[in-house]
Design goal:
172 residues
Length: 172
Amino acid sequence: MVTLRARRIDNLNRNVVKSRRSLELALTARAQYAHDFAASGALDIAGAILLADSADSCLRAGMNPIVEDGLETMDTVAYGEQAVPDRRDLESNLSRTLRLTVDQTEADTYTEDQRRLAEYLTKARLDVVLTRSFHNIHVGQVRRVRGTTLAKVFHLAGTAPMPETVDMDDER
């Protein structure tokens, strides 16, 4: 019984790490497509600058962990004496900027290339919503199983850190 529960916790922790990686990829894709769309000429100059700046901020912070729970194995990017920006704030800002710029444009005025970029961006935005949702479901499963008396008494999680949910504005 104890061995099976330990294996279950290990598998759940692996699922969290996999879903975190998927979320990271989805966030990077969304930022890249947002940047490309901003450069496509579909937006007015002010909207293009806002969107490009927000997308660039997300791309620059892409190596930083999305949450500080210790599951990240990558080294964070050094910012010298500056504080590392909160990645969730940057990603939430991109979501708000996308709503303010892209969602306010008329799609019937797009060229074929702009339409294609808009479709890719729409898919990337949906991917972020779905992968974040799946990640948070996996985190909830780990927390429930690790919160049982059996898991606590026998220290079945070992030294694995307790994962955190990713709470941010993802356009839902």
